[in-house]
Amino acid sequence: MTFQSILFERDDEVDARREPAFFGDLHLDQILVSLVAGREEYELAPFFYRPLREIDAVGYRHQVLRDLEREVVCEPVREFARGMRLMREHLALTKKLHYGHQKQRWFLEAVGVYCDVVRALAAQLALLELGSRGFVALREYLTSYTDSDELTSLVSETRELKDELAGIRYAIHMKGNRVRVSGYEGELDMSEAVEETFAKFKQGGVKDYRLRFREYAEMNHVEAQILDLVARLNPETFSRLSAYCSDHDRYLDDTIGRFDREVQFYLAYLDYTEPLKSHGLAFSYPRVSARSKELNVDATFDLALATKLVRESAPVVCNDFYLADPERILVVSGPNNGGKTTFARTFGQLHYLASLGLPVPGRDSRLFLPDQIFTHFEREEEIETLRGKFEDELFRIGEILRHATGDSVLIMNESFGSTTLRDALLVGTKVIEQIVDLDVLCVFVTFVDELASLGESTVSMMSTVVADDPAVRTFKVVRKPADGLAYATAIAEKYGLGYDSLRRRIAR
Length: 508
Hints:
The protein is of the alpha/beta class. The chain is 49% helix and 15% strand.
């Protein structure tokens, strides 16, 4: 196969420059900030804004990641990435420096680093047993490229020119404020003579009083003039250096440059998830389907929240869920601050990460590959819209239902909480009926218990509390019939706010 991209088996230009609308609601924006930290030079965000729409494309990335999870594959790739970063640092210097000969020498060094790291990666991959279509194709490409006349001649010319420059010898004559440069004619190296003279006074284990000068990449004007004089003494070598820089200004192969950037998508996610795995949290390669909407994930969690908790050495609560035909909607109720919204975010994160071809939080995961993800979370009123809060909620859900398809995923969190219970039940029922008609997969977090039992498409899940103390949340969300009012009564009794307690206090 012809290698084009380590992210896309078929050429697929990434043009997604805008963050999806649901990123903030699902805290995917927070995850992305952490993912790309320290990798800003690669501009990775567009890759995370571009979900996949085909099962085979997801499988392509799964294969690549499985290869990268093996140290024998990952370390050569990381070494290649470090080398390419060093190359770019050298190239950046050529743009910052002022003196022409120095700029050209740094350019030569950058090309030398490039040749070395490309050939090293090709040689290392040639020795490995690879399981992914992506890396197998990359290996074939690198083998062909490193054997090509283009690279072999570049390697040869680079090595010869570096050796020629390294072989230049010259003498500097200084008298007062005058400096003269001449060819080297076997003059005594005074530094060696001084060291030899004082070697007899050398003692072990003494304090080093030498002053160390700071090294600057930029030459000063005296050094630059000396170099100009050296260039006059060696015109052919420096003429070759100048021609080399002009001839090879486009030395970087586009496919290799693209791989260098794209592979960071995988490395960023592996680095991000490693502390969570070390904490004992599970990740799995989801079995994704574009047809079946039967879902199952064990021991899953909110990735953004887990990252924060692990940094604080706090425990992470995991949850399980499943949907079996004809179930489509998880209606989540229960006490406030019990993990309902976190569960809803987790559901959305799982489906989006799966659509990026990445491992998802949890064990033994089976998920649907959506065409779109929609969120309906509470919003502050915006005076510009001239709509009240409830009217705005109706407007937004109307827009969602007009654009959603049977392949979409919808996460609704505490929707219609700004109106009366009766109206919330009425509107919620109508919305769920439309969701069922569209055959959309949905999580519906609500305070209206009746919505959990509207038909065979709906499944009731509840955030739970400690059995002996209903005021204490477990943050576990389980399949069970809704009975949220019991928790309100228990909490009221615990804090002396029950009916009997209040009546006795008022009577006093």
